[in-house]
Amino acid sequence: MASNIGIAETKNARRRSEAASSTAVDAAREEATMAYVEAHGGRKDKLLVSSERPRVRVRADALRCLAVPLSRDGPERQITGVLLDAALDLLRRRQAGRRRRRNGRRVLLGSVEEQDWLEYSHFFVAALDVAAGEYRILDSSNYGRRFGPRFYDAAMSKIRGGVARCVAAAGRAGAEADAGGWKLRMVAGLPAQTDESSCGLFAIKCMELWDGEKLERGFTMDDVHELRRKLAGELIFWELNEMQEVKDEIEFMARKMMMMMSSSSPLRNCGDRVKLATLGGAGGVRVCY
Predict the structure, then answer these.
(1) Alpha helices in 41-142 (DSSP H)
(2) DSSP code of 215?
(3) How far apart are CA 279 and CA 229, in angstroms?
(4) Is residue 26 part of a domain?
(5) pLDDT of residue 168
(6) Residue 3 burial by CB count (10 A; 0-12/13-18/19+): exposed, middle or buried?
(7) DSSP one-letter string for 143-212
(8) Burial of 142 by CB count in 10 Å (0-12 exposed, 13-18 middle, 19+ buried)?
(9) CB-count exposure of residue 181 (10 Å: 0-12, 13-18, 19+)
(10) Percent of the chain having pLDDT more than 90?
(11) Residue 279 confidence class, pLDDT cut points 50, 70, 90
């Protein structure tokens, strides 16, 4: 009996050790990914994510926004349409095997590009409810309250027209054929956006969790910040990303970080061709790659 207990304790200790090791490896790779993105963020010619099916192209400058700290909240932290499209392709692939509710409700993504009354571009989600003949608006910042109904009317004009043409082409009669005039209804109870730069990430979370009628579960600003930290790595290490050289370089950086965390000695003999990325601000970890 005592022997069995000893074996069980040994196995549990091994599992805890393996879990801790896996967590440390993941953390090192996440830090290395962000350092890599920051180091190359000014380059419009460096491709970090490339896939043919689905066709996805994300260059270093498009990922740079994910590495900008909250202390510099503003346009440079806001994700672009290119990055948002790539994230949604990743999301669709992940959800392809899941059984989703098929109830006549579909999710559309609305983007507002530099409207007269907006200081920045803004993203929100519009969920199309065919049965009710309405669009349900999921907007973290609730711009409609600040700028009035014309904000969403203007933002949705192209989407409404496109849906109406699709419905008409399908030969649907009655109220469904009048899709261009369907009303807009705000979805209440969404978490508040507390910065000026995360609307695109909120849109991704809403599309991930919307089940056709409601969010499958709630989320907070902390979840949005976590998505910002992880999104670059999820895209770069996506199995469909063909940029293996980029993956290898980041993995090399992560291994170096792990070595530095396990030793107090600084890295030496990095060679003439390496770059240095400083992690964690002044006095942070210096990684050679």
Answers:
(1) 60-63, 81-95
(2) B
(3) 14
(4) no
(5) 75
(6) exposed
(7) HHHHH-THHHHHHHHHHHHHHHHHHHHTT--GGGGGGGG-EEEEPP-PPPP-SSS-HHHHHHHHHHHB-S
(8) middle
(9) exposed
(10) 40
(11) very low
Closest CA to 87 of 260, 271, 227, 254: 227
Residue 146: pLDDT band with limits 50, 70, 90: confident
Q: Does residue 266 belong to any structural domain of this protein?
A: no
Q: Which residue, chain included where needed, has tokens 């054929």?
A: 177
Within-domain flag for 249: no
Distance CA 41, CA 232 (A): 12
- Residues whose CB is less than 8 angstroms from the CB of residue 263 and which lie 6 or more positions away in sequence, other chains included: none
Task: For residue 120, name the pLDDT band (cuts at 50, 70, 90).
Answer: low
The residue with tokens 């992560």 is 254
Distance CA 287, CA 28 (A): 11
Residue 161's CATH number: 3.40.395.10
**Residue 24 is assigned to a structural domain of this protein:** no
Domain of 181 in residue numbering reads as 41-242
pLDDT (tens digit, 9 = 90+) per residue, 3-39? 555 555 555 555 555 445 568 889 999 999 999 999 9
Token code pair at residue 269: 């003999």
Cα angle for residues 50, 64, 71 (degrees, 5° grid): 155
Asked if the peptide bond before residue 54 counts as cis, ω within 30 degrees of 0, the response is yes
Check residue 238 and report its DSSP letter: -
Look up tokens 């010619």; give the residue.
45
Calculate mean pLDDT across residues 222-230.
96
Strand 134-138 versus strand 183-186 pairing type: parallel
The structural domain count of the chain equals 1
Q: Give residue 139's identity as a one-letter amino acid code.
A: D
Q: What is the mean pLDDT of residues 117-128?
A: 76
